[in-house]
């Protein structure tokens, strides 16, 4: 039987939003699997990845420059993790400011398009590649007050499928990961404290707890590895059963 490996030795990877909680965990897991990782965030993240670069993923020029630099410094690219997300505006559409709506779409959705556009030529040069889009359970279902976030993540799920079809014959896969609530500063800030976040979000998940960043990193490693070689155009819901009800 062929070895379906989680080994990423020597593979060049770019992770966006790498200074955030899930991003850091993903970079650490890919690095531990042998990948050489360029960590991108609005300001170059410290102590994460082999190469740290400042890049606003909604800025086409900045994306082109950062991807070119990452590819040059890592000696090629074959993994892209689109993980960056803007702060989530909360409220119904009469309460969400146009600028906040636009920012959510520009970072969460257009950012993934721009990064994919810049990375695919590097994948082609190597004859293989994988794009992992970090979506959300709220791209599948929604909840009051999250119109911009949910719409951006639903769009990202759709973008994943089209990317998969467009590049299937080029040995380039496109997959997505949809976390449920994960214990991060994102939900701690929303709830006020770690305890309040667990109390608020755990009951929404049939498993009775929120997710851990390490669980998202493990799912990400599977999806970008050869073990998931036949997985493309698909989403992995790592949501503790949130969407199963
Ligand atoms: N935390 C959760 O409960 C949860 C649940 C479902 C999905 N997610 C998704 O997982 C991903 C990571 O979430 P997190 O909790 O680590 O969030 P986070 O807010 O800690 O990290 C997001 C990172 O993206 C960066 N970022 C924002 N705008 C950017 C831009 N224009 N260009 C580059 N970087 C930018 C931020 O600076 C931040 O470091 C996001 O896509 C989020 O939507 C998170």
UniProtKB/TrEMBL annotation:
One of its GO terms (molecular function) is oxidoreductase activity. SUPFAM superfamilies: NAD(P)-binding Rossmann-fold domains. Transmembrane segments: none annotated. The keyword Amino-acid biosynthesis does not apply. It comes from the Bacteria. Signal peptide: none annotated. Keywords: Oxidoreductase. Belongs to the short-chain dehydrogenases/reductases (SDR) family. This is NAD(P)-dependent dehydrogenase, short-chain alcohol dehydrogenase family.
């Amino acid at each position: 039987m062929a070895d379906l490996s989680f080994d990423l030795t020597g593979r060049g990877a770019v992770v966006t939003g790498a200074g955030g909680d899930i991003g850091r965990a993903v970079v650490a897991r890919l690095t531990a699997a042998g990948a050489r990782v360029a960590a991108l965030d609005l300001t170059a993240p410290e102590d994460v990845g082999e190469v740290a670069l400042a890049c606003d993923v909604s800025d086409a020029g900045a994306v082109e420059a950062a991807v070119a630099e990452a590819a040059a410094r890592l000696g090629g690219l074959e993994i892209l993790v689109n993980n960056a997300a803007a702060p989530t505006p909360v409220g119904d559409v009469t309460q969400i400011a146009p600028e906040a709506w636009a920012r959510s779409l520009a970072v969460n959705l257009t950012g993934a398009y721009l990064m994919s556009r810049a990375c695919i030529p590097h994948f082609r040069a190597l004859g293989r590649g994988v794009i992992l889009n970090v979506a959300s359970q709220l791209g599948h279902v929604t909840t009051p007050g999250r119109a911009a976030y949910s719409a951006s993540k639903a769009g990202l799920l759709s973008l994943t499928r089209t990317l998969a079809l467009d590049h299937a014959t080029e040995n380039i896969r496109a997959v997505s990961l949809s976390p449920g609530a994960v214990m991060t500063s994102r939900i701690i800030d929303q709830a006020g404290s770690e305890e309040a976040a667990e109390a608020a979000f755990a009951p929404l998940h049939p498993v009775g707890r929120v997710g851990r960043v390490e669980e998202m990193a493990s799912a990400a490693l599977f999806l970008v590895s050869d073990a998931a070689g036949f997985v493309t155009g698909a989403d992995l819901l790592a949501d503790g059963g949130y969407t199963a009800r």
